[in-house]
UniProtKB/TrEMBL annotation, chain A:
Protein localization: Cytoplasm; Nucleus, Nucleolus
Record-level GO BP terms: nuclear mRNA surveillance; poly(A)-dependent snoRNA 3'-end processing; rRNA catabolic process; U4 snRNA 3'-end processing
Chain's role: Non-catalytic component of the RNA exosome complex which has 3'->5' exoribonuclease activity and participates in a multitude of cellular RNA processing and degradation events.
Native source organism of the sequence: Owenia fusiformis
InterPro entries attached to this UniProt entry: ExoRNase_PH_dom1, ExoRNase_PH_dom2, ExoRNase_PH_dom2_sf, PNPase/RNase_PH_dom_sf, Ribosomal_Su5_D2-typ_SF, RNase_PH
Identification of the protein by name: Putative exosome complex component RRP41
Transmembrane annotation, as ranges: none
One GO molecular-function entry: RNA binding
GO cellular component, one term: nucleolus
Principal cellular location given in the protein's record: cytoplasm
Subunit structure, interactors included: Component of the RNA exosome complex.
Keywords assigned by UniProt, alphabetized: Cytoplasm, Exosome
Any matching Pfam family: RNase_PH_C
TrEMBL record, chain B:
Subunit structure: Component of the RNA exosome core complex (Exo-9), composed of EXOSC1, EXOSC2, EXOSC3, EXOSC4, EXOSC5, EXOSC6, EXOSC7, EXOSC8 and EXOSC9; within the complex interacts with EXOSC4 and EXOSC7. The catalytically inactive RNA exosome core complex (Exo-9) associates with the catalytic subunit EXOSC10/RRP6. Exo-9 may associate with DIS3 to form the nucleolar exosome complex, or DIS3L to form the cytoplasmic exosome complex. Exo-9 is formed by a hexameric base ring consisting of the heterodimers EXOSC4-EXOSC9, EXOSC5-EXOSC8 and EXOSC6-EXOSC7, and a cap ring consisting of EXOSC1, EXOSC2 and EXOSC3.
Keywords, ordered alphabetically: Cytoplasm, Exosome, Nucleus, Phosphoprotein, RNA-binding, rRNA processing
Predominant location category: cytoplasm
InterPro entries linked: Exosome_cplx_N_dom (IPR025721), Exosome_RNA_bind1/RRP40/RRP4 (IPR026699), KH_dom_type_1 (IPR004088), KH_dom_type_1_sf (IPR036612), NA-bd_OB-fold (IPR012340), S1_RRP4 (IPR048565)
Protein name: Exosome complex component RRP4
PANTHER family per record: EXOSOME COMPLEX COMPONENT RRP4 (PTHR21321:SF4), PNAS-3 RELATED (PTHR21321)
Pfam families documented for this protein: ECR1_N, KH_6, S1_RRP4
Family: Belongs to the RRP4 family.
UniProtKB/TrEMBL annotation, chain C:
Protein localization: Cytoplasm; Nucleus, Nucleolus
Name listed for the protein in its UniProt record: Ribosomal RNA-processing protein 42
Keywords tagged on the record: Cytoplasm, Exosome
InterPro entries: ExoRNase_PH_dom1, ExoRNase_PH_dom2, ExoRNase_PH_dom2_sf, Exosome_comp_Rrp42_subfam, PNPase/RNase_PH_dom_sf, Ribosomal_Su5_D2-typ_SF
GO molecular function annotations of the record: mRNA 3'-UTR AU-rich region binding
Length: 245, 291, 292
């Protein structure tokens, strides 16, 4: 990465953003007919599709829980999603780890006690990967759950942040991820500002931790505003056609 | 052979909402006043007095009860609903029925009528003959008798108009598109019968004669259906799919309008998205005029 | 694929309908459902396409990489097919659930494209015995609405037609060693000629008749099916029967004839649409993708 300046002298990043600017978010609910809920989210060049099935009778070897619903997640990446072709879409350690993280995240947000002895499946498929896979997956899964009408305490919004060239930056893309700095991923429930999931890798000086964390949380709240706008627009459209009664 | 490019995709019309809508999304505060009872789709905030929404939908306020109706959800049954279901499992003295709800519904052996409408206690022989009457894959129309504590439904077919369904086509739509009405069984003038299940399953079949054919499903007619009737059924199926794709609530009136609007096209042309859109908007306009 | 449950009466209804040439959605026995096509949907791939055939949704990405040619064709490049059934389509495909179907589809495609006249693989060769283009065709199945093989084949043909490979010049440098120079110019690229690439037509036998483009319900009524890979001029490059039933030799001949008719029509219409799409790509085209 020699010669690649992550932050120019005027304060612009590689893709022309300012350090506190998010990538452009575009999303849509109800992309497919068969799943109970589905959503598509684009954050910059990262594109993710999420599908939710349920709640339904538990299938296969899943053990029924008497007091709450079983949440089953699968994270998968298309083989053409990355710059270098990926051999296996899922089943490798990274994907299994991300599937587990998704499950933990959504167990905290979905009101699981409302559906005892049932199962909810959340399937995430990354179509194009340019950094922030986990964050976009969480955002897409949240929209898919809302589309399926599954009760949640709040939206779950995720965002990444990093500390590069002595500046905290939000929503890092692939080039910034691979430059060697730390990557802090945070998912929160925006209204109550409760952190549902937090992970970081690489070294980060504790003096910078607060700044980077604050930047990530603010990023999540901005993501929430974008997602909420999409949901409201979708609802207005659909309810307008229901009004003839 | 019809191949279209995505760039010439027909987009849904942007509709203007009629009247103010109170739309909420998960986590939104509905009200901070106390004294309200909370219904489906709401929850009390921990440690605070706010009533918050847990799903995205319209706020429905009936006196002191506030609930939020989500736009799309699995079927939530209520006593008295007419539903159409498919048998998925035969167990001892009961059948498990798929009704697109979160748990499979149950049809007890004691809740069905025996051949000929006999009413007597079921014996062991009846238990062994269960599979002869209803086996996996069969479609039935039934009414919700009871809702169990875990949320699953108990069905009954204790009337000759319910029971196993014969030849016809099943169309699946979202349950929110079928509202509760006085009757769900319609004999359409165009030559087919329609059963609108509250759970979103819609059954289209050749006209049911009230007197001769209502046998509770014990007599199955496997004779080939006439070509004319078949076309009517196919046309109705395509019209219902067009209406459902555009989110129009389904009644016998709006389905008939769509049927009449579709007459100028051949049945298979109705599968194209631009023609579906035209039919949906024509039916919607006619519905609004008639109101 | 998981069999969907159906009652005997429903099966009888569908069977009689097919005999009368009026299927449950009004189509005739040789009619396809409406198809929607889009190319250039994935930017990380050299070529991509998305096809919607009623409810079936397939996304294909083609990536070209440099590799060694196979021993029996030292001057030719090669194609490798990989099918991934996403769990988005149905929960049965979770984990390794869709692997059988994926294997069936990828081996059928490999045989269909194996014929030397389909695709000019010699144009993909760079240095004899040393380097060639390997095109990895990755297919992602997003939704299953019946007749997956046809949808996949259409998407693969469209994606290959959309593929742009950078131009490579072979030079000898000072030490007399061969050197490959890959052009950096995004507009300086080679296209693949897909005029003779095949499309797959699946013919399902229901009762005494056979139908083209079966929906999910019709597929569960049919006991045996024949898949043929047909090119635009009517050549059959591969065929395969599947299913638990058996077929009469006369029915197979009839089905092959229908397959040829349907296949040539499909290829012609597809080709015309791909040319139309090319022209649009030249001008400023808005990618519809999943957003609208």
């Amino acid at each position: 990465m020699a010669g690649m300046e992550l932050l120019s002298d005027q304060g612009f990043r590689i893709d022309g953003r300012k350090p506190c600017e998010l990538r452009r978010i575009q999303s849509k609910l109800g992309v497919f007919g068969k799943p109970d809920g589905s959503a598509y989210v684009e954050q910059g060049n990262t594109k993710v599709l999420a599908a939710v099935y349920g709640p339904h009778e538990p299938r296969g070897n899943i053990v029924k829980l008497q007091d709450k619903v079983v949440i089953n997640c699968q994270f998968s990446m298309a083989t053409f999603s990355t710059g270098e072709r990926k051999r296996r879409p899922r089943g490798d350690r990274k994907s299994m780890e991300l599937s587990m993280h998704l499950q933990q995240t959504f167990e905290a947000a979905i009101m699981t006690e409302l559906y005892p002895q049932s199962q909810i499946d959340i399937y995430v498929e990354v179509l194009q990967s340019d950094g922030g896979n986990y964050c976009t997956s969480v955002n897409a899964a949240t929209l898919a759950l809302i589309d399926a009408g599954i009760p949640m305490k709040d939206y779950v919004c995720a965002c990444s942040a990093s500390y590069l060239d002595d500046t905290p930056m939000v929503d890092i893309n692939y080039l910034e991820e691979s430059s060697g700095g730390t990557e802090l991923i945070v998912s929160i429930l925006p209204k109550s500002e409760q952190i549902v999931f937090l992970s970081s890798n690489s070294r980060l000086h504790e003096d910078c931790l607060n700044k980077v964390l604050d930047m990530a949380i603010k990023g999540c709240k901005d993501v929430y505003l974008c997602l909420d706008e999409t949901v409201r627009e979708h609802m207005t459209q659909v309810s307008a056609s229901f009004s003839a009664d | 052979m019809d191949i279209k490019l995505a760039s010439s995709r027909v987009l849904r019309d942007s509709l203007e909402p009629v009247g103010p809508l109170h739309l909420v999304s998960p986590g939104d505060v509905i009200t901070s006043e106390s004294g309200f009872m909370r219904g489906h789709g709401t929850f009390m905030e921990e440690g605070g007095g706010n009533l918050k929404a847990s799903v995205a939908g319209m706020v429905d306020r009936v006196n002191k009860l506030i609930s939020v109706k989500p736009l799309k959800t699995r079927y939530n049954g209520e006593v008295g609903d007419v539903i159409i279901g498919r048998i998925v499992e035969v167990q001892q003295r009961r059948w498990k029925v798929d009704t697109y709800s979160r748990l499979n519904s149950i049809l007890m052996l004691s809740s069905v009528n025996l051949p000929g409408g006999e009413l007597r206690r079921k014996t062991e022989e009846d238990e062994r003959m269960m599979r002869d009457y209803l086996s996996e894959g069969d479609i039935i129309s039934a009414e919700v008798q009871n809702v169990f504590s875990d949320g699953s439904l108990s069905l009954h077919t204790r009337s000759l108009k319910y029971g196993k369904l014969g030849q016809g086509t099943l169309v699946q739509v979202s349950p929110s598109l079928v509202k509760r009405r006085k009757t769900h069984f319609h004999n359409l003038p165009c030559g087919a019968s329609l059963i609108l299940g509250n759970n979103g399953y819609i059954w289209i079949c050749p006209t049911i004669n009230e007197d001769t054919d209502q046998t509770g499903g014990f007599v199955q007619n496997l004779e080939p259906v006439a070509g004319g009737d078949r076309e009517v059924i196919a046309r109705l199926r395509n019209c219902i799919t067009a209406l459902a794709n555009h989110g129009i609530v389904l009644f016998d009136t709006v389905i008939l309008y769509a049927y009449e609007a579709s007459q100028k096209y051949s049945v298979k042309e109705l599968l194209q998205s631009d023609i579906m859109k035209e039919i949906a908007s024509l039916s919607r306009q006619r519905m609004e005029q008639e109101l | 694929m998981a069999e969907i449950l159906m009652s005997e009466a429903e099966r009888t209804f569908i069977l009689h309908g097919i005999q009368d040439n009026v299927r449950s959605d009004g189509r005739g026995c040789e009619d396809y459902r409406p198809i929607e096509l889009e190319t250039e949907v994935v930017s990380n791939a050299n070529g991509s396409a998305r096809v919607r055939l009623a409810n079936s949704d397939v996304l294909v990405g083609v990536k070209g990489e440099l590799g060694k040619p196979s021993l029996d064709t030292p001057e030719h490049g090669r194609l490798e097919f990989f099918v991934d059934c996403s769990a988005n389509a149905t929960p049965d495909f979770e984990g390794r659930g869709g692997e059988d179907l994926a294997l069936e589809i990828s081996s059928m495609l490999a045989r269909a494209y194996d014929c030397p006249s389909c695709l000019d693989t010699q144009a993909l060769g760079i240095i004899k015995r040393e380097q060639c283009w390997v095109l990895y065709v990755d297919i992602l199945i997003l939704e299953c609405g019946g007749n997956l093989f046809d949808a996949v084949a259409i998407a693969v043909k469209a994606a290959l037609g959309n593929t742009k490979l950078p131009v490579i010049t072979v030079r000898k440098d000072e030490n007399d060693e061969t050197e490959l120079e890959i052009s950096d110019d995004p507009y300086d690229c080679e296209r693949i000629k897909i005029l003779n690439a095949p499309c797959i037509v699946t013919l399902s036998k229901v009762g005494n008749q056979h139908i083209v483009d079966a929906s999910l319900q019709e597929e569960s009524c049919c006991l045996s099916r024949l898949m043929v890979a047909v090119t635009e001029n009517g050549t059959i490059t591969a065929s395969k029967t599947s299913g638990s039933g058996s077929l009469n030799p006369e029915s197979i001949i009839d089905m092959l004839e229908s397959g040829k008719r349907a296949g040539t029509l499909l290829n012609k219409t597809l080709h015309a649409k791909l040319l139309e799409e090319e022209v649009k790509v030249g001008t400023k085209k808005k990618t519809m993708g999943f957003l609208t």
